[in-house]
Predict the structure of FAD dependent oxidoreductase domain-containing protein.
Amino acid sequence: MQTSMNLSVGIPHSTTLNLFPQNRTRISAIKSLQSNPSPMDPPKKVVVCGGGVIGVCTAYFLAKKGAAVTLIEKSNIACAASGKAGGFLALDWCDGGPIEQLARASFNLHRSLSQELNGSQSYGYRSLEALSLTVTEEPKRTSSSSSSSDALPSWVDGPARGPKTIGTHETTAQVHPQLFTRTLIENAVEKHGVEILIGKLERLEVDGGRVESVVLEGGLVVDADAVVLALGPWSSKLELLSSRFRVSGLKAHSIVLEPREPNAITPHALFLTYNASNRRTPLDPEVYPRPTGEVYVCGMAKEEEVPDNPEEIRGDKESIEMLKRVAKTVSSHLGEDGVKVEQACFLPCTDDGVPIIGEITGVKGCYVATGHSCWGILNGPATGAAVAELVLDGYSTIVDLKKFSPARFAGRTKA
C-alpha cells in the first residue's frame, strides 16, 4: 500500500487571480503557449467556466490541442463534488446504456493519463477489486458475526454475507478525485499555458447569435471565440441554460476516516446492501479504501436546492451519523475516532439521466458539458477530450455526442 503520496498538489500562485475590479475592463483571453502558432493562424480563444473535473479536463485537452484557454472558477479548483467524490472508475458498468461508449473511452483515458502524469504517485490511480455484499446491523457485535467466505477481505469483520466480485483489476480502478483534478490543471497551466481566473460568472455576451465574451461579477469581460459551460449543478443558476433544460442537484454525503491499522486495509471497493436496525428499507452505501491510507464512505443522497456558494455546503447531521454507523459496523478498523472529514456535495442530474454535452442551439460557439451525476470523475477525461474536438474541429471522434446534445430538450416543458 502506498502511504507516501504527495497530498499537496496545488496551483502556482501566480496563475490564480482575484478579479473584482471597480471599473468595467475588457481583456483578451489569448495566452502564451509553448508551441508558437503561426501569425496567420492564431490560437482559438476558449473560455471554460467551471473548475470541477469536467471543466478541468476540457481545459486540459483544449490547451493540449493548441487552444488559448482561460478557465474561470468562482471558488477553488475541485472545491465541490470533484473534490469530495469517491473517485471510483469502472470500464463496463455502464454497458447497455446511453453512456456506454463514453464510460469505456474515459476509463481507458484515465489509464493513459496516469501513465503520462505519474498518476499512481500524484493522485492515487490504481486498479482494485469491487465487491457487493449485504451487511445487517446486529444488536450485539461478535467476532464471529462476519462471513467466513474467502471473497471477503480480512478487514471486513462485521456482519457481512453474500460477497460477490463485481469488478476486477482489469475492469475497476480509482483515483483521489481532488488530487486528480488539481494535478491535471497544474499540468495544463505549466505545460500548455492555461490561465485561471477566480470570479463569479454573471452572463455571456451574444451578438448575432454568436457568443462574444464572458462577463464576470464586477464587470470584467473576457473575450472568447468559444465558451464551454461546465457548471455542474450550478448550471441551473445560469438563465441561458435553465431556460433550455433542467439540471437538479442530488446532495450526497460522505466521510473520510483514518483506519486504526492502515496497512491492514486492502484495495477492495465495497458496494453494500445495508440493513439498518431503525429503517425498513435497505441503504446502499459505498466504501473505498484509498492509497493515501484513508477510507472513504459515502451514501445518503437526496435531491435538494443547490446553494449559490459551494463553500457553504454542509452535510446533514443524521446522514453523517448513519455513515459513521455503517463504517464501524462493516469493520472494527473504522471507528468514529478515526473520522477526519464530514462533508456533502451536489451531483448534477438531468431529467433523463443522460449528460448534456454539445453546442447550445441558437448560440454559436457556446457549448455545455454537465449532468454526469455519480459518474463525473469516471467520464471527465472522455468528455473533456470530446468537447475539445467539437470546439476546435467541429466534431468528435472519441465519442459520438449526438445522444448527449442539449437540442434533445427542445420543446419540452421543464418540471
The longest helix spans residues 100-117.
